[in-house]
Each structure stands twice: as structure tokens, then as C-alpha cells.
Amino acid sequence: MNNPLKYLILFLCLPAFPVQAQRVLTFGEYLDHVRNANISYLAEKYNVEIAGARLTASKVFPDPELSAGYANNQNWNLQMGYGVDAGLSYTLELGGKRNARIRVAQSEMEMTAALLEDYFRNLRADATLAYLTALKQRELYEIRKSSHVQMLELARADSIRFRLGEITEVDARQSKLEAAAALDEALSTGGDLQEALLRLLLFQGDATMALPDSIAGAPTGLKRTFDPARLVAAAQHNRADLQAALKYRDVSQRNLELAKANRAIDLEIVIGGNYSSAVRNEIAPAPAFKGITAGVGIPLRFSNANRGALRAARLTAEQGERQYEAIELQISSEVMQAYNRYMTACRRAEHFEAGLLDDAHAIFLKKRYGYERGEASILEVFNARRTYNDVRVNYSEVLFDCAFALVELERACGIWDIELHP
Fold first, then answer.
1. How far is Cα of residue 20 from the mean position of the Cα atoms in its chain?
2. d(CA 246, CA 243)
3. Residue 85 and residue 71: Cα distance in Å, rounded?
């Protein structure tokens, strides 16, 4: 034991005396941070505000146009006088263009809000999976650490037994090697745990904040009983991406209405006045006078012969219908696949809960007891320990697979009741 690993082994085996209060991150606190501080989600929120600003902009009326002019003869000797005129013109939109623009902007804002909700649905599920991954790494680290403690105790006992002449030097050295190997596994798993905790910081929107000393929660109490037909119905009712597809279909229809409205002829109303000064020319004198002008301008819409924009809007509306049907079918498929994965994971968990873990633990204890009394070899103890640890790891992975599958199932259905209690 005269090597650097000695001090690390002793450190891992020290009792945990409470020096200061540990910061424990709970699942509820973590999700609150994700909801309120995730940078990507905060950036997505701007899309709703932008859509709201566009809705406000769509309500604007055409601006009137003011014109003014001045005329004078450059030959002052002719004394032809001068003229001043001013006019005001306004484009009167016909065909319901303004209302069509407002309906398009309103539908786009509703679609953007649905897309934001769908973004958070996926963000919440991804953040939960990251939290469960951290819990899984914590559980694996505890398993590896306890395995190391067991082998360290066995190595210490074998060292004493070797000095007493009860076992050979090879068995004593083998125990030390197994303890060192168990320590290496614990250190490697501890590194994976740190990486998982760092990923939680990214979801919380601050990669510079201090890592929590621990995280609370366990993959227990997550078994549900579901009716597949009701799950599909719930998904079609709750999924925000389906609502977004519905809103996109509305946007396409509104754009088609706007394209039709834009083909209507607008009228330009013009009203103005002018003043001409007196003409003092001896050949054609004239008094000063004022005049009023009014008129209507009608554009000649030869461009309406090109129906490309209208056809594109109509095809986009039909495309929106097909996309809605495709997403509806895709959601049904996703729900059934997630349901099957969840049920498979639950059945595997029940297999481990039928006593497999207890049997592996009992076999390990019996082999160790027999080895201490010379009734079993050291290799039998090692094999029993590896089997017990493998069963523990597999059981932990199955439990977390069940939790992962539940998260994916609720993501697919658009429902959420995940809680991870300590």
C-alpha cells in the first residue's frame, strides 16, 4: 500500500462527517431553472413577441400623400405671374386587403405560440432525460464505490491472513489487485457523474454556476397504467406541434385569401387646390384666381393576367392540409412506439424485482463467508462479486430505462406528470 493510491483509497473510506451544508439540487428546482433561465428557450420567446409586433404592423392604414408645387415663368419681362398648387392623395384599399393581412398576422402569431409551446415540451423532456442520466451515473458511482469498499475490506483481511499463514501470497496480491481495479472503476464512473452534472448546468442556462454537491430523486414510483387508445387521443389533443400544424394550415388559407384580395383594384382619391397670380402681360392680361381639383385614380391591373402568386398560395394551402394529416399520423405512430418501449422496460424491471438481485447478493455473501473459512477459492469470490455487481448495474439500468421510456411516452403524448422524489 506504499503508493499514491493508498491515500485516495483511505480518503474514499473515511466516514462522511458533515463539515458544511451541502447544496442538493431537487428535480423541481432544476425544472424551474430550465423554464426561467434556459438561454435557447428565452431566445425562442422572442418569436412570439416578434409575431405580436407584426400583427400590430398589419393593422396600419395606407399613408396619405401630400404634394406641393410652384411654377413661374423665367422671363420676368413678360409678367406672366406665378402659380402655386397643393394636393392630397389617398389610396383606398378595396377587396378586404387590410382585414386579410390582419388575419394572416393573427394566425402566424398563434402558430408561433404553438411552436414555442412545442419547443418547451421537447426542452422539458430533454432536460428530464439529462437529470435522469445524472441520477443514473450517481447510482452507478455508488455501486462502484461500494464494490471497492468490499474489495478493500477483503484485501485488508487477506493481508492479515497472509501474515498469519492462512492463505498464500498470490491470493493476498490478487485481492489487492481486485481492490485497485474496483477503485479504477469507481473513479471512472465518478468522472462520468461530473460530466452529467455539468450538462445540467447548460440546461439551467448557466455553465459557470457551481456544481451541486448532490442531486435528489430516484427512478421509483414511475410505473403507470395506460390505455393506448386514450394515449393516442390525448396526443392528438395535447401535442403542440399538431396545433402548430393546424395553425400553419390556417396561415396558408389566410395567405390564399390575401392573395385573392391583392388582386382587387385600389382607388386613389386626389383632392387639391391651386392659386395663380395676376398676369399683367399687355397682350393677354388675366386676374388672379384660385382653383380646386378633385379626382379618382384607377390603376390598370394588367399584372392580374399573371396568376402565379395566386396559384402558389393555393398550392401552399393544399400542402398545409397534407402536412397536418402527415403529422397526425406520425404522432399516432410515435405514441404507439413509445408505449411499447415503456411496457417492455417495465416488464424487464419486474423480472429483476422477482428476487434476482437478492439471490446474487446472497451468493456473494456465502462465497465470501466460505472463502474466509477455506471452503471456497478467491476466484469464486471474485466471480460472485462481479456477478452481483453486474446484476446491480443491470437492475439500475433497467429502472432508469423504464424512467427514460416514460419520459419519451409522455413527450409523445403531450402530457406531463413526472416527479422524482428523493
1. 36
2. 5
3. 9
Q: Cell 382607388, residue?
A: 267
Helix-, strand-, coil-residue percentages of the chain, each rounded to 5: 65, 10, 25
CA atoms within 13 A on the CB side of 278: 3
Say which amino acid occupies 377. Answer: S
Per-residue H/E/C for 266-309: CEEEEEEEEEECCECCCCCCECCEEEEEEEEECCCCHHHHCCHH
pTM for this structure? 0.78
**Do the strands 65-72 and 289-297 form a parallel or antiparallel pair, or are they unpaired?**
unpaired
d(CA 268, CA 94): 11
Q: How far apart are CA 224 and CA 345, in angstroms?
A: 12
Exposed / middle / buried, residue 12 (Cβ in 10 Å: 0-12, 13-18, 19+): middle
What residue type is 209 in one-letter code? M
How many other CB atoms are found less than 10 A from the CB of residue 92?
12
pLDDT, tens digit, 9 for 90 and up, residues 344-386: 888 888 777 666 777 777 887 787 777 777 777 777 777 887 8
pLDDT digits (tens, 9 = 90+) for 192-220: 888 888 898 889 887 677 778 788 888 87
Looking up cell 389617398, which residue turns up? 90
- Here the cell at position 204 is 439551467
* Residue whose cell numbers read 469507481: 186
Name 105's Cβ contacts closer than 8 Å, sequence gap at least 6.
51, 54, 55, 57, 58
Contact 81, 280 (CB under 8 A): yes
Place of cell 423504464: 402
In the block, which residue shows the cell 430533454?
Answer: 126
